[in-house]
Model the fold of this input.
Amino acid sequence: MSSSLVVSRRNRRTPYTDRVEACGVQDYSIVNHMLLPKSFNRSVEEDYWHLKTQVQLWDVSCQRQVELRGPDAGRLAQWMTPRDLSHMKVGQCFYAPLVDEAAGLLNDPVILMRAPNWFWFSIADADILLWAKGLALGMDLDVEVTEPDVSPLAVQGPRAEDLVALVFGEEVRSLRYFQFRELPFADRCLVVARSGYSKQGGFEIYLDDSSLGGLLWDTLWESGGVFDVAPGCPNLIERVEGGLLSYGNEMTRENNPFEINLDRFCRLDGKVDYVGRVALQKIAESGPSQRIRGIVFEGRPCPPCAAPWPITIDNKVVGQVTTAIWSPAFRKNIALGMVTKDHWTFGQAVDINLPDGETRRGKLCQLPLR
Amino acid sequence: MSSSLVVSRRNRRTPYTDRVEACGVQDYSIVNHMLLPKSFNRSVEEDYWHLKTQVQLWDVSCQRQVELRGPDAGRLAQWMTPRDLSHMKVGQCFYAPLVDEAAGLLNDPVILMRAPNWFWFSIADADILLWAKGLALGMDLDVEVTEPDVSPLAVQGPRAEDLVALVFGEEVRSLRYFQFRELPFADRCLVVARSGYSKQGGFEIYLDDSSLGGLLWDTLWESGGVFDVAPGCPNLIERVEGGLLSYGNEMTRENNPFEINLDRFCRLDGKVDYVGRVALQKIAESGPSQRIRGIVFEGRPCPPCAAPWPITIDNKVVGQVTTAIWSPAFRKNIALGMVTKDHWTFGQAVDINLPDGETRRGKLCQLPLR
Done:
């Protein structure tokens, strides 16, 4: 089993790893120094169809929480993102870019406001804990910055609401997208949010007691029997079709939020201050030089994209593909890529240059792909 | 091939990945969001004997550099570590613990002083870049904190000096341990240090131009023909025998530097100030409550240690094993583990509780194991 390659304490197991192994996990990726299941006993395509029709349990414990708590928690949270948090309410989730002083992206977490002085940043792959701690210490803020014992379990797919309602009650049906509520489970109250890294609908349960991991998994699993529940994980085909970006893939510190189309999450009028504001305002004046686009291209199924592939027009490089995979629904290859300003029009014909030297004809599309 | 599980741009390839693949790499681990080869076409034991007798090339590009450069570089470097850097000279490498405000370990890099206002922190697995940037920004320091295009290639083993001398000249023989010099290669000067993550002697070459990765690898490889050169990577048996610790395995934020026996690298008299000084002084007053020990234990080869195993005496938990492996030299299992104060005496008999319920009799030993 290829997961042998990640066996060490450094690659942390999760509260659900025992269950995931019992379900026959085949391999893992590592995100935030923690195991993220990558596949079970079926192909990405089979998993894709299941996710789009049924319900899955995903061990996304690797979405670690960076907790800011204390009198200056709100001040630090706002300092860390260009998104205006002033109107944020307890019980809301905000998708928020984090940038450095040069407006380079450091992460794109979902922020949860647990209380006025208490935030969770549910992060993608980077040690934002250290960034937040460094800022807090350097600025001498009165805030505790920690990684609490919180391990999200995602329930995703069109039957997710029915399943979560069986376990947490009918109340979950009234939760709006990116809202959360604390709901009882095993003598505790768990944060249950309508959210998740797919476009098929679903919930994320923020388990805050590792010792209950097995019980939470088993309870959902047993209730899920009537829905053909299966173990799952973020599905690459579904993610690309849905235009869901991935930190480290579609964006790095080299990119600013405009380039990944997050203009609406950047407050630029100076009424809110944050790290990178001046740099971001400057970039906004002339506009970004490149933007993320969907791409559809021809030919047989492409290999995985391990390093960016050049996008060219008449042999001139105009961008790069960052993620690509064959889509069984489109019967074409689909991709995400960064394209320069003069060429980013939807419908633009482009060439995708694969690592083996082959060139494929494609065109730029809106996200999500339709 | 199991390396398929890490194919995405997020798991960054290195300047040597093409060569490592041509050598038949079998799987990878991920360190600092970058590929670290974990094995080639032979067992850990075969690799162990080769490392102890010949010479190997290791792609340790994942030892990313955090560069501090500018008027406040020295001030920030010192602020980040309890080790006294005041007498550090250009051309020296210092092994240095990094801790947070509670004296919890954040990393254990090797610091290189390139110039009085220019440092590289060659880091273990954690985004110290973000910690350093956060501190610098919060404290409003005049320093550039970056991850430069620097990818170390290690040459390790008893024939390493002979091989490196063939490529970089006889001058390398006069380099003392943890010294570096800039030596010419392909119209550049590369930092060559006598250092590395083994006890077999060797060098690390800090390539600062990715485009030369293939050339550097090939030049060493071709010169190494006469020495039975082989591709390699940190060897778990050799590392445990040598008492080399691993961030994330033997130490986490839960540990302080005394617990991993770094007392000599903590300046406590108040003449040097740094993050965590007060917390560290307080811990020093009563002394640490646990310390890292070597452990040798009986029975057939143990499984890999994916999560800490309890160490007990008369069924009372007195510590935990963090890394363990069968040693062909000792004909016993060898391990690293944290043991509480009342029981950490060398020679202490202990029981190791394996995950399958089996208990093995062992004893505590000094590091490195002999």
Q: What stands out?
A: The domain at 289-370 of chain A is CATH 2.40.30.110 (Elongation Factor Tu (Ef-tu); domain 3).
